[in-house]
Amino acid sequence: MRLLADVGVDAFRLNFSHGSHDDHKANIEAIRKIEQDTGRSIAIVADMQGPKLRVGEMGDGLELRYGDTVKLRRAEQSDGTDIVHPHVELEQILEPGLILKFDDGKLQVTMISDTEARVDVPGLLKSRKGINVVNKVLPMSAMTPKDERDMQFAMDNGADWIALSFVQTARDVVDARKVIDAHPKAAGTGIIVKIEKPSAVEDLDSILSIADAAMVARGDLGVELPLERVPVVQRRIIRKGRELGKPVIVATHMLESMIDAPTPTRAEASDVATAIYQGADAVMLSAETAVGRHPATAVAIMDRIISAAEGDPILWEYFGQTELPHEGSAEDAISRSVKTIAKTIDAKAVFGYTRTGSTVARISRERPPCRIIGLTPSRRTASQMALIWGTHPVLTSDPTGFDAMAEHVQIIAKDVGLNTGDRILISAGVPFGVPGTTNTLKIDTVG
Predict the structure, then answer these.
(1) Ranges of the chain with pLDDT below 70
(2) For residues 376 and 364, what is the distance between their CA atoms, to the nearest angstrom?
(3) Is the pTM of this model over 0.90?
(4) Of 211, 269, 277, 348, which is most buried with the most CB atoms under 10 A?
């Protein structure tokens, strides 16, 4: 994990679909030790399993043949002739015309009655394989009892973000927020919504308006949506996240071939670059680093692809031509001005004082042509800002006045590698230390 951090990782995702709480606690402690040793903030994302539908015990497996009719019933054990599942919620919505996919989309049936289906895509259906329901909202929450236990554990141990799986509507985010707000140590924990259901795509604006970040979870999304729609939906989610100033992660199958191979395919390299060109804040590796043979190499190659894309002038032309909606607030006026002023004076960095990370996120969404140094007294905010595009978080105290602020920034500027004579910008709120008061922008020079 230390090697992965050294070659470019800004956040670690702990997948609560696998492993014990003891395993995850050991990983959290290791990540915090890396933060301490390196002096660099790292985000910890606790990824909930969510209400994954699975078939029951299918014995040696059931061979589904094209065009055959097969029965579906709620039970734990198949008799060798039917498909069984343990989910009462699925039983409630089965109706003629409903499409079900199994095993990550490898098999497919269409319901012809409440209990029988026609096989459209044949194959061997084995025990405990996943079920995807196409174009139907399931009567179940995105949080299962297991998720609530896992959330409590993650918050007890200081996770920075909770990622909600299989979100369907904004109500799922509201339910998760209640659990977080009720926890005595979890104030400020962010919610990442994983967009992987068609119903979530339809309710995207409402969901993102109350979430803190989004993940384009292309695995299940590609199963439940036609494949040709996934790139379009990805672009839409990224665009909406930027409009709201909320980080967007693009995930799943980014460098999949590197699970075994030492280099990715050209198509995979282009896929990563496309996410950058579209404005994603972060790109994620999964099996490549969890079980792959070349984890550090995969991270290093992904870092090189990102750097190459961000070194392309066309990327900055696109950001310059993209008009974002703005609120009539001092914070938005300043974040918008940062981009113009930084370009005009060739600023090397903007230093943003923030309590919650909101100001830095608003600056980041404008994609200024310089580094963003997020200054905060909150450990959790510093770690969360590691997910925000272009941001270098620094854990530090609030200044006591303008003179102290200028001196403070001069010291930090040298610590983050800036040189004497570099022009910089400083964004802050007066009075200092009060959330939501960003109202000042100062131009300065590193002495």
Answers:
(1) none
(2) 16
(3) yes
(4) 211
Residue type, 140: M
Residue 222 token pair: 């590609």
Please give the CATH topology (third level) of the domain spanning 326-445: Pyruvate Kinase; Chain: A, domain 1 (3.40.1380)
**All structural domains of the chain with their residue ranges:** 2-50+141-312, 53-134, 326-445
**Helices first, then strands: H and E counts in the chain:** 17, 21
Identify the bridge partners of residue 63 per DSSP, sorted by sequence position. Answer: 124
Residue 436: what pLDDT?
Answer: 75
pLDDT for 431 equals: 81
pLDDT of residue 403: 87
Q: What is the DSSP string of 8-63?
A: T--EEEEETTSS-HHHHHHHHHHHHHHHHHHT---EEEEE-----EE--B-TT-EE
**Count of Cβ atoms closer than 10 Å to residue 293 Cβ:** 12
- Is 132:163 a contact under the CB 8 Å cutoff? no
CA-based nearest residue to 284, from 262, 306, 267: 306
Amino acid 126: pLDDT? 96
